[in-house]
Each structure stands twice: as structure tokens, then as C-alpha cells.
């Protein structure tokens, strides 16, 4: 599986084919090399290189002072990162799995998100919280949550969910350089997907991207759902329907301008996300599209999301996750009769 | 870092130098601080008490939304700030405005939170004081992280992190002490055990012999100290700060004290404690104790007392003046600092509010013109 939003890779020396996990690893290494105030810590990120091997080799290369394991204490990891950021460091912490980030929630919401505002910018929280998230990998309970809405709902946080190795690399570099705290969500199902990564390419935070051009309807997605949306567009194309795919990438802030332009150009929209749909990022996207594109819309905005149930056990997850058929059914329902 | 148990356990009795009449006790575990420092501490205590009284009065006048007073705990407040060097940092709670001011933050800036103008009113970097933390024990982790950063850069900064007895039950207390001990960080954890977390007594927070006993579980020394004895507190805090600065790692200090006022003005403490108990602690007032000692030592003249009283009055007046002035916070501030740069969404939302305000101003203007017109008729 090769995944990229860009034209086929050039032959430039800066381009490599990497998995998304490898791209994150490269971004961390390059950031550690570029800025002595960057430190990487979390659970098993040292010798082991992380349970997903995302930090593989970093401790050996940069030393224990800069890449280290902490006690098992998620609030401790994030709380200590707050103190470090107060004292001039740029911590990049890993919380091992989506659901195991919850003990840190108070620190994230009450301090990471608010410290810059509370102190009128005197203490900016330049830090990144990396969280492997999402399902579709046969994981058991507590290992497959899509927890993005909790963070995206919180003013002060920037929330990024890349779907390609290039975006993972470039947006993580931008996240580490950002003066604001960034929750960086890495979809576990995408960790092993390969794509070209150009290490000089910059992608700013807060920008969506059109991942596939199309004229009949717009599929709006992020994370692993971008892949599903692209597959759906492929199938639809064979059936003679041209679907555009927008990769949101930045869940907070949302790139209203790009989303608006895309949806206006087709007049129809389906939002796709695997998180439960109620009060979700998908709900926000649908609401904004409704507010901003109403007079361009030929049909109500549809959402294809996870059900409002706890994430399914491995043998049931295929029923839970949005798939190509469910997306195409939603597309079929977009008032095509009068065309 | 491995330690002998005996080094880590608190002593049988709290460290105490002075009895209630200001007589020096036979305390051999720490050296008595020099008189000059005790004089400085007394000055700070008097100012602290005056700030507490003034702020409680300002609440009654509606100038402060709320004030969690440290009345009765002033010796702890003073001993938290005094031993620190300028480059050091203090991580205070909502109850520690007096310690914040002790670090040099102007009193009016320290009151911005409680006055309701903004969430914090001082520049933390300028004074080495983190914003006062309200979510219990969370600041202890910030202190550990701050000290960790200093350690990574080879700096000898020391951090004092404050919390109450109730906060020791929070998960972040455990995570912070454990982290600080594992990484050998220069943090002094100062717990003001004032017997209550709002209405809940210490017996509902812990079954341990003392809070200081928890230290051994983390591999750091725990010290119990009389929290109404400024001399003892200073001795203990100096030792802990020196140890941290020399690379010896963290210390947990438990100060036994008492909150004389209710939790805040909004609390009714008659529902959960006896007046007799409060009176017992009023009699153990930290100011009277140190004053008696200094008088016995001939180290506090009537002239010096007058001067200290005048200084305290000046601080109180500064507070009153700052809070009597009518403050009109700028609504645009709501949008200014959420991110380093305003997002397009926040620009839109501010534009909406600005428009509402402009229309309000216009109609107010029209109304007042109309009223003037009517008057003229
Ligand atoms: C996480 C959290 N839970 C609850 C509260 C509400 N609360 C504020 S102060 C307080 C009591 C704290 O007692 P203690 O730590 O002993 O400090 P003291 O107020 O006695 O100085 C409580 C429960 C809070 N601020 N934060
Ligand atoms: Mg208490």
C-alpha cells in the first residue's frame, strides 16, 4: 500500500520510501538533531524503541538524557512535560495507546491547553503529545479508541491526524516547532503503510488537502478513513461517479477555507470518521459545511461514522468501522434524482 | 539511589525550636537559623498576616470574588519563599498568595485571579513563580518537570512545590514524588497539613503514621516540622533546599499547621469543626511565637516593630488602592492568547463579539442623546 497526496516521488536525495512509523521516527530524529531543547520521553520509548517501534534507535543515537523512559504514570509524563516546557524545553511525549492517555486528561485540559492563555503568552506550552489511536487492527479493549474529539473540543490545543508518511513527517516537524501544544494522533492501522517522504518538504499545521480530485461529491475524512474514502472513490469512478476526497489532517484548527471550497465545488458532502458520530469531529465538520455551504448544497450533509457504542471487539470491528459500501450508500442517498 | 531507611523516615516528633512562649527548646536535629534571618522572617510574617486580613476584608467588600486565606499558616508561606535564590522557582496553590508575594510578585498582580480580571496576573518568569494552581497536586508534576529540565542543562535551580494535606491523596502527588525521586530532581515538596481539605479531616486522607512517612515509599527523606514555628520551618527548608541544590534529590516536608479561617469565605466551617479546636490553634499563633522569641533575644525593638507595622500597612494600602480602582478587562483578551497566533475561527468569533459591542455602544449613545434631548425640552 503506497500512500501519498503528492505527485510521484522525485529522485531528489531527500526523498525516501518510509512507513508512517518510519516517517515519525525520522521526524523525531531530525528534530532531536536540529534543536537541543527537544526531548522525547514516555513508556518504553527508550531501549525498546516504543511498542510500535516509532522511537527505535533514538535513545542509542541521542543518549539517555534526551530520549528516556519514565515511570508508568501518564499524568506524570504530561505534567512533567508541562514543567519542562515552562523551563525552556520542547518535550515530545508518547502516550502508549489512545485509552491509556486518559489518566493524563486533567493535565492536558487544565494545563497543557490553558497555560499559554492563563499567563498571557508568558509560558507557552511548546510540546507535542503523540498518541497512537484508532482501530481496524484487531486490537482488544482499550487499544482502539478514537479519542480525537476530547482534544479537538479543547481550546488551546492543536490536533493533528496525518494519513500519509509525508504528512506525518512534515506535520510532526511543524508540531515540534510550534509555539502551541499539539496532540499528534497516529492511526495505528497506518503505521505500516509506505509512502515517499521528502524531508525538506514543509506542511504547515491547520491545513487540509484535497487528496483526490472529483466533481460529483466530496468525501471529507481524516486518519485511516482517508484510505477508505480513497478506495470508495476508486470504486465510484469505475461506476461513473467522480468523488473528491479531502484529507482534513488538522482537526483543530479546522481548515474551513479548503473544506468550504471543496464542498462548494461539488455541492454534496459525506463526512467519514471511525469515532462514534455523536458530538464528534465529524459532527462539527457536518455542521460547519451546513453553515458555510448551505446554498451550494444539493443534499443534506451525510455522516458515515462509527456507531455510538464502545469500540467493537476484534471479531466485530468490521461491522463497526465505516467501509466502502457504507460510504457509497451514503453517496447514493445524496439527492441525485433531479440531475 | 538507595538509602538507609533510617535516613528517610521522619523523626518521632516534628522538628520544633520554639515553644509557644518563645522559649528555645532543645532541638538538636537542625541548627537554629541566625537571628538576622528570623528578624526577616518576622517582618514577612507580619506583612503576610496583614495581607490575609486585608484580602478577607476585600472579599466582604465585594472587591475579590473569593480568598482562600492562609491565616494561621503564614510561617509556612514565609518559609517556602525565603530560602529560595532568585533563580529558583516556586510552584504555589490557590492558598499561597502570600508566598507568591514573598517571592516579589506585586500584591495587586497576585490578586488578579481572585479579583476576576484574568486567570493569573503576574509574569512567572520575572519572579520565578508558576501560576497558582487550583487543580489539586497538578503543579507538583510541573515542578518535577521544571527541575528535570534544569538538571538536563546542568543548572542548579531548586524548586519548591507546595500543596495541602488533602492533595496528598491525589494521583498526581504520587506521580510527582515518584518521578522526582527516580530522576533525583531538585524539588522540595512542602505539604501544609492544616488538618482539613475543606471539611474532610486528615483521617479521611491517610492511614499512614504521618504524611512525611510516605517519603520512604519513594526513596526520599520525609521530615515533619512544626508548621507554626518559623524558626524550625526555615531550618528544615534550608536543609532541604541545600540538599537539592547539591544534587541530593528531593525531600518531602510535612508542616503541621492549622487553617484559622474557613476554607474560603464561601465555606461554613462551623459545620465540621469545634470552635474550641480553632481557639487552641489561635493560641499557637506563629507570629506571637516568633515575636516572643525575638523579644527574649532582644532582637526586636519597639522601633523595629513600628517600622514593620508601617510596612505591613503600606502593603495593605497598596492592595486596597489596586482593588478599589475600577478595572475594565478587555473582552478581546479572551481571544488573544489561546494560541500564539489567532486562528481564523477565533478572528471570526472576535469580529462577531466586536460587532455586538459596537452596536451596544451605538444604541447606548443614541439612548443617552435621546435622554439629553428630553432633558433639554
Ligand atoms: C482535582 C481537584 N479536586 C477538587 C478540588 C476542589 N478543592 C479545592 S481545595 C480542596 C481541598 C484541598 O485541601 P488541601 O489539599 O488540604 O488544601 P487546603 O485547602 O487545606 O490548603 C478541594 C477539594 C480541586 N481544586 N481540584
Ligand atoms: Mg488542608
What proportion of the residues of chain A is helical, as a percent range? 25-40%
Q: Describe the biggest sheet of chain B?
A: 5 strands, parallel
- From the helix content, strand content and strand pairing of chain B, which structural class follows? alpha/beta
Query: Looking across the biggest beta sheet of chain A, what order are the strands in?
Result: 3-2-4-5-7-6-12
Features of the shown structure:
heterodimer; A: 339 residues; alpha/beta; Rossmann fold; 2 domains; 7-stranded mixed beta sheet; 5-stranded mixed beta sheet; 12 helices; 14 strands; globular; B: 377 residues; two-stranded antiparallel ribbon; 16 helices; 7 strands; binds thiamine diphosphate; binds magnesium ion; Transketolase_C (chain A); EC 1.2.4.4 (chain A); Transketo_C/PFOR_II (chain A); 3-methyl-2-oxobutanoate dehydrogenase (2-methylpropanoyl-transferring) (chain A)
How would you describe the overall organization of this protein?
The complex is a heterodimer of chains A (339) and B (377). With 339 residues, chain A is an alpha/beta fold. Chain A is built from twelve helices and 14 strands. Chain A has helices spanning 20-34, 58-62, 74-86, 105-112, 115-118, 148-152, 165-177, 224-238, 256-266, 281-293, 317-320, 324-332; strands spanning 15-19, 38-42, 67-69, 90-94, 128-133, 158-160, 182-187, 194-198, 209-212, 217-221, 243-247, 250-252, 269-276, 302-306. In chain A, helix 8 (224-238) packs across helix 12 (324-332). The radius of gyration of chain A is 20 Å and the shape is globular. The mean pLDDT of chain A is 96. Chain B is an alpha/beta fold and 377 residues long. Helix content of chain B is 48%, strand content 8%. Chain B is built from 16 helices and seven strands. In chain B, helix 9 (171-182) links the parallel strand 2 (159-164) and strand 3 (187-193). The longest helix of chain B has 33 residues, at 344-376. Classes of the chains: A alpha/beta (339), B alpha/beta (377). The interface between A and B is large, with 48 and 40 residues. Thiamine diphosphate binds next to strand 2 and strand 4 of chain B. Chain A: Its EC number is 1.2.4.4. Chain A: It is an enzyme of class 1 (oxidoreductase). Chain A: Residues 18-193 form the Transketolase-like pyrimidine-binding domain. Chain A: Its cofactor is thiamine diphosphate.
Amino acid at each position: 500500500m503506497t500512500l501519498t497526496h503528492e505527485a510521484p516521488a522525485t529522485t531528489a536525495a531527500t526523498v525516501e520510501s518510509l512507513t508512517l512509523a518510519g516517517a515519525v521516527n525520522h521526524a523525531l530524529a531530525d528534530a532531536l538533531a536540529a534543536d537541543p531543547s527537544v526531548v522525547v520521553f514516555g513508556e518504553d520509548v527508550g531501549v525498546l524503541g516504543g511498542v510500535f517501534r516509532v522511537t527505535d534507535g533514538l535513545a542509542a543515537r541521542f543518549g539517555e538524557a534526551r530520549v528516556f523512559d519514565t515511570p508508568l504514570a501518564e499524568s506524570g509524563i504530561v505534567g512533567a512535560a508541562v514543567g519542562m516546557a515552562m523551563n525552556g524545553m520542547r518535550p515530545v511525549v508518547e502516550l502508549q495507546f489512545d485509552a491509556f492517555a486518559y489518566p493524563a486528561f486533567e493535565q492536558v485540559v487544565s494545563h497543557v491547553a490553558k497555560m499559554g492563555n492563563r499567563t498571557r503568552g508568558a509560558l507557552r506550552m511548546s510540546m507535542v503529545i503523540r498518541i497512537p489511536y484508532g482501530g481496524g487492527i484487531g486490537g482488544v479493549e482499550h487499544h482502539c479508541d478514537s479519542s480525537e474529539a476530547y482534544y479537538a473540543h479543547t481550546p488551546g490545543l492543536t490536533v493533528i491526524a496525518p494519513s500519509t508518511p509525508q504528512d506525518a513527517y512534515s506535520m510532526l516537524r511543524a508540531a515540534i516547532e510550534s509555539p502551541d501544544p499539539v496532540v499528534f494522533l497516529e492511526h495505528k492501522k497506518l503505521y505500516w503503510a509506505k509512502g515517499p517522504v521528502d524531508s525538506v518538504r514543509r506542511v504547515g499545521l491547520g491545513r487540509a488537502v484535497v487528496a483526490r480530485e472529483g466533481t460529483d461529491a466530496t468525501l471529507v475524512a481524516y486518519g485511516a478513513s482517508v484510505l477508505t474514502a480513497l478506495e470508495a472513490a476508486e470504486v465510484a469512478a469505475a461506476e461513473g461517479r467522480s468523488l473528491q476526497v479531502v484529507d482534513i489532517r488538522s482537526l483543530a484548527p479546522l481548515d474551513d477555507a479548503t473544506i468550504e471550497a471543496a464542498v462548494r465545488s461539488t455541492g454534496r458532502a459525506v463526512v467519514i470518521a471511525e469515532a462514534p458520530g455523536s458530538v464528534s469531529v465529524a459532527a462539527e465538520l457536518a455542521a460547519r459545511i451546513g453553515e458555510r455551504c448551505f446554498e451550494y448544497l444539493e443534499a443534506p450533509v451525510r455522516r458515515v461514522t462509527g456507531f455510538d457504542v464502545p469500540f467493537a471487539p476484534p471479531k466485530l470491528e468490521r461491522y463497526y468501522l465505516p467501509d466502502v459500501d457504507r460510504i457509497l450508500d451514503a453517496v447514493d442517498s445524496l439527492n441525485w434524482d433531479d440531475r | 539511589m538507595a538509602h538507609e531507611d533510617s535516613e528517610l523516615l521522619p523523626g518521632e516528633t516534628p522538628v520544633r525550636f520554639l515553644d509557644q512562649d518563645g522559649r528555645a527548646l532543645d532541638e538538636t536535629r537542625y541548627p537554629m537559623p541566625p537571628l538576622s534571618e528570623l528578624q526577616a522572617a518576622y517582618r514577612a510574617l507580619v506583612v503576610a498576616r496583614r495581607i490575609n486580613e486585608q484580602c478577607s476584608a476585600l472579599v466582604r467588600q465585594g472587591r475579590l470574588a473569593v480568598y482562600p486565606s492562609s491565616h494561621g499558616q503564614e510561617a509556612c508561606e514565609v518559609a517556602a519563599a525565603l530560602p529560595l535564590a532568585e533563580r529558583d522557582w516556586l510552584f504555589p496553590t490557590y492558598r499561597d498568595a502570600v508566598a507568591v508575594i514573598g517571592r516579589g510578585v506585586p500584591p495587586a498582580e497576585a490578586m488578579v485571579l481572585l479579583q476576576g480580571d484574568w486567570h493569573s496576573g503576574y509574569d512567572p518568569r520575572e519572579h520565578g513563580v508558576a501560576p497558582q494552581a487550583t487543580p489539586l497536586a497538578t503543579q507538583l508534576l510541573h515542578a518535577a518537570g521544571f527541575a528535570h529540565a534544569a538538571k538536563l542543562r546542568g543548572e542548579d535551580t531548586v524548586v519548591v512545590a507546595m500543596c495541602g494535606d488533602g492533595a496528598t491523596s491525589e494521583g498526581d502527588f504520587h506521580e510527582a514524588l515518584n518521578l522526582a525521586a527516580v530522576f533525583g530532581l531538585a524539588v522540595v515538596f512542602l505539604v501544609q497539613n492544616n488538618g482539613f481539605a475543606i471539611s474532610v479531616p486528615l483521617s479521611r486522607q491517610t492511614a499512614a503514621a504521618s504524611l512525611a512517612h510516605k517519603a520512604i515509599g519513594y526513596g526520599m527523606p520525609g521530615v515533619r516540622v512544626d508548621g507554626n514555628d518559623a524558626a524550625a520551618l526555615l531550618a528544615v527548608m534550608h536543609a532541604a533546599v541545600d540538599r537539592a541544590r547539591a544534587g541530593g534529590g528531593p525531600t518531602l516536608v510535612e508542616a503541621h499547621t492549622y487553617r484559622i479561617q474557613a476554607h474560603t469565605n464561601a465555606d461554613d466551617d462551623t459545620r465540621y469543626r469545634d470552635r474550641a479546636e480553632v481557639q487552641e490553634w489561635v493560641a499557637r499563633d506563629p507570629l506571637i511565637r516568633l515575636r516572643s522569641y525575638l523579644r527574649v533575644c532582644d532582637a526586636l525593638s519597639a522601633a523595629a516593630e513600628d517600622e514593620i507595622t508601617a510596612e505591613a500597612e503600606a502593603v495593605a494600602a497598596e492592595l486596597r488602592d489596586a482593588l478599589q480602582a475600577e478595572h475594565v478587562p478587555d473582552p478581546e483578551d479572551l481571544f488573544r492568547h489561546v494560541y500564539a497566533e489567532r486562528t481564523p475561527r477565533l478572528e471570526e468569533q472576535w469580529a462577531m463579539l466586536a460587532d455586538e459591542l459596537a452596536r451596544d455602544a451605538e444604541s447606548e449613545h443614541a439612548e443617552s442623546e435621546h435622554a439629553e434631548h428630553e432633558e433639554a425640552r
